[in-house]
Structures are given as structure tokens and as C-alpha cells.
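Input:
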Amino acid sequence: MTAWTDAVSMEPVLAVVAGVLTAAAVYLMLSRNLVRFLFGLMLLSNAVNIVIFASGRLTLVAPPLIPGDAVAPAATVANALPQALILTAIVIGFGLLSFVMVLVWRAYVSLGTVDTDAMREAEPVEEDADPPPGDPASVPSPARGS
Amino acid sequence: MSWLPVLSVLVPLTTAVLGLAASGSARVQRGLTLFGSTVFLAVALALLSAVWQHGPVAAQMGDWAAPFGITLIADTLSAAMVLITAITGLACAVYAAGDIDDGRRRQGFYPMLQFLLAGVSGAFVTGDVFNLYVWFEVMLISSFALMSLGAGRRQIDGAVKYVALNLVSTLLFLAAIGLLYGMTGTLNFADLHGAVQEVDNPGLLAAVAVMFLVAFGIKSAVFPLFFWLPASYHTPPMAIAAVFSGLLTKVGVYALIRIFTIVFTDEALGDHFAYVQGLLLWIAGLTMVTGVLGAACQSDIRRILSFHIISQIGYMVMGLALYTTLGLVGAVFYLLHHIVVKANLFLVAGVIERLTGSFELKRIGGLYAVSPLLAVLFLIPAFSLAGFPPLSGFWAKFVLVRAGLEVESWWIVAAALVVGLLTIFSMTKIWGEAFWKPHPGGTAALSLPAGRRAGVAVGPLVAPIAALALITITIGLFAQPLYLLAERAAAELLDPTAYITAVFGSLPVEPAVVEPTPAAEAP
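Output:
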């Protein structure tokens, strides 16, 4: 077994990967462009999953299987809990991110921009610039095709 | 094993699923939701009475023993919060019958509302920190859907900001859970209580505690992290905004109270506890002040009310930051009273818009002459929010101020009192502009409210408002029962022995059979 597959040396690697992913995510999320923000969120959610994975300790031992007639494993086994946690987090993260993607697309279609500074529909700069009372959705959209 | 904590999640979930199946008929779906909400209220009442009689009630899912399986547990605070959730849910479901248009109903308003209630209620009764995350997500995804339902331009704009900042909070929360698990090897609150005291690096623990503080701080909209709230809460219809304003931020406050009383206690954090406590106190003061100042310069009723949510959150955090029994009593009392009052104010705002055609204070007026009943119904929650004596808000503020004086934390007490005064300013502004001032369009503009909605009766909208106002008055006139409840909740929070016993003590089977988890060894 080479040093690279050894669990002991994997933990710093995972720590660095999580750190780099977080840094990249923060950089992207500081952008005013919503699409970049979205990519940042995706990277951050992967970084978090790696953090959870590493926090469960990386061990090169038996898989967490128990013989049918026993109630506890005979020897030390790998920690299965972080994997269950990550699986849950991935599923939830996938759902949330797909929602955000559709929301960003929808925002682009109806507001005509993905620049958060230009999105002043809900908080108009000038309070008197409110659209007249009525359904806000009925205001014609500047974007094409909507 | 008690079924009540399970039912408090299961009932709204079932209602939601049945509601989805019945989305073809408006009448069936509404009836079903109202029935489900009523059953939920009954379950919540039964849960609170069980907790009141027997102490914390726990349920182990699938009979897996406590630190390994999924635990649902309701102590006094959880049970009271579930009850108040059920009340708010029912009030908003009734109100929605007259407020939510058929388009939004077809898009799934009622099921989403029930999913939201299930998420909120699940967050209150969960016994471990990872499931807290899961229930937060259930709540969050339903609130995303409710926020963008109908997809008006303003709503989409508000939803983008709401969704983006809440997702950042979620990821921070998840990372903090991972790190906490790495240090302690457990996720169960009751188990964590002991496990964190064995962590040999309290500095690292304090860093994780602050990560939780920031994550829950975003959710509960405290001082430097509240920007998503005033950007979004005024955009959806009022039935939705009322649920949000009543419940969502308060789940964040609940999570803060829970995690800082059972996991990151003064024993666990050692010297760093004073730092976290000081931080909380500053956050509380600044949240109160910025919220109320933000409200003072707004002229849209919904935005005034949104900023007041922030300012009121400060009071609850203040109770936690003082970290005395009386402080926590105040925080719990405030939490319970505030949900009713705030949801009610948003419902009233909806009726004001119905009658005058706008939320903008400059464009409306003359309501006192048209509807004195509505004026009274506005006055009750508004003055309760500000803390006027015979109403519930007075007692909440009284307990908190007293708790602050007890520990000689003068400036936070001063902030609390001044902010109360400024709250009156905002409330009298709405009163003067919306009720006393003549309508700028003349009385004719009021007699036929906003033309297009002339056919809609205001009656069903007023019933839930009156019911919530009645609760506010009742709490105000008979504060003792709620005070006792809050006192017991605070005692349980500061001494979690009963909570821990309930989690570990109620095992119906012998341990040998219920130890199925491969005892994962953390080296």
C-alpha cells in the first residue's frame, strides 16, 4: 500500500481540498452575478460534505458489517454515520440547488437581469417610484420572451 | 414511548399529502386543511398537557436506543412552541380562505403551508442536531415555494435574496454540525450535553459555537445578518407573510436557545463562555436598535412590520444572553407572545390593504370612520408589541427588563426601554396615517374598496384576527399561567437533567437487543 492511499495522509489532503473549495466558493459568492453566486453555493456545499466526511475519521479497516448471529462487530469497523449524514446532505442540497437554479432562471426571465445590484423591484430606490396599486405581475417585463 | 411528539409532525405532513391529492377541488382542499390544522391544534394541546403533567416526553424512532437512533423529544419549551405553531397555522389557514387567490391555491399553497408547519414543528421536537438541520430544510424548501408562489416580479426579487442568504446559513450550520460531530462523536442533544465537556480544547469548541451562532443568527435575522428579511417579507400575500413573520425567525431563536443551553453551556465552553455571552448581548442590543430605526424611516406598513420583527428578535436574544433563570423566562415568554402578536399584525395589514387599496401610508387613510372594529383589532397587537400595560407585551418586556436590572446590565435595559418607546412611534404612525387621517382619495375610495375586490367579503379575514387578539388580551390579563409555563421551561433549559433522563430513560427493551449500531470507533 503506497503512502497516498494511506488514511493518515489523506486527512490533510481532504482538509486542503475543503479549504480550497471554500475559498473558491466565497470568492464566487462575493460576485454580484447570481449565476456565479449559485456556483459558489455548489462548491461550498461540496466543501461542507468533505468536512463532514473527514470529521468521521478516515480509517482503513473493515466495512461496517456485522455477522447475522452477532449484535456488535467483532473488530473495529469503518464509521458509517458520516456517510449517512453526507448522503442526506447531498440529497437535500441537490433539491435546494435545483430550486435555486430555477429561481435564478425565473428571475432572469421576469426581471431581465442576474445582477443583484440591479434587482430593486422589491426595494425601490425611491419610495415614490412604487408601481401603482395593482398586481405587480401585470407590469410588462423588459425581458424578451416573457 | 409516547406518540404525541411523533403526531405533532405526522399530522401536518399527512394533511399536506392529502391536500396535494385533493388539489382538484378548492372546497375539499380548504376543508381538509382546516380539519388537519384543527387536529394539529388538538395534538399540540395534548402534548403540552402531557409535558406539563409528566415532564419531557420522548419517543425513540424504531425503538433504537437513544444516542444511536432518532429521538423526538418535547420539553416544556418545545411543547409550548408546537402549540403556538398550531395556533398560527390554523389562524393563517382560515385567513387564507379569503386571501389566497385560486392561482396560488392551484400551485399548492395549502399543502406547502402544511409542509412548512411540519418542518417548524419537527424542528421544535427533534432531539438531535442533525435532524434539526433536516427539519430546517423541510421548513426552508416549503418557505421558498411559498415565497415565490405566484411569481410576481417583486416576489421573485424578494425570493432571490431570501433564498440565497438562507442557503448560506444552512451550509454554515451543516459545516458546524460536521465539526461538532468530529469533536464529540455524537449528535444527540442529550448525549452532546455530556460529551462536549470532555472535549479537551474549549477554544475549538467556542469556534464551533460561534459558527452555530452565525448560522442561527442568519435564520433569526439578528443584527449584522438580517438583510434578507426586510428585502423579502413584504412581497408575498399577507397570509404567507404572517406565517413567516410569526414562525420562521422564531425557529432560529429557538435553535439558539436550545443549543446554548444544552450543548454550549458555561461548563462546556469554560472561559470562552463569557465571550460568547458578551457577543450575544451586543447582538441583542444592536438588533433591537437597528430594527426599530429601520422601521421608523419606512412608509409601507409591511416594511414597517418587517423591521419590527428584527427589533423584537433582539429582546429574545437579550433574554438568552443574560443567561439567568429570569432572563430565559423573559425570552420564552417573549417568544410565545410575540408569535401571536406579529402574525396578527401582518393579518391586519392585509385587511387594511383590502379596504384602502394600498399598503403605502401616504395613499391610505380614513379607516377609523369606516371600520372602528378593525381599528380596535389593530390597536391590540400594536400596543402589545410596544409593551403597553394590560397587554401581553408588557409582561414580556417587564420580565426582561427586570432580569437585566438583576444582573446590573444597565445599557441593555436602557436599550430595551428606548426601543419600546420607538416602537410606539412606529405604531402610532400607522395608526395616525391609516386610521385617523382622511383618505387622500376621499371617502368614496373607501366605500367601494379597490373596485376589483369589491366582491370579496372581509368577514372571514377578521375572524382569525379577532381570535389572535383575544389570545393577546388573555395573556395580558391572566399572565400568571403563561409566566409559570415560561418559568418551568427556563428551569428545564438551565438544568437539563429531566430532558436527558427522558431521552435515555424510556427504553422499553433490554439494551442487548437495541444496540444495533456498529459501535464506530473514533480513533
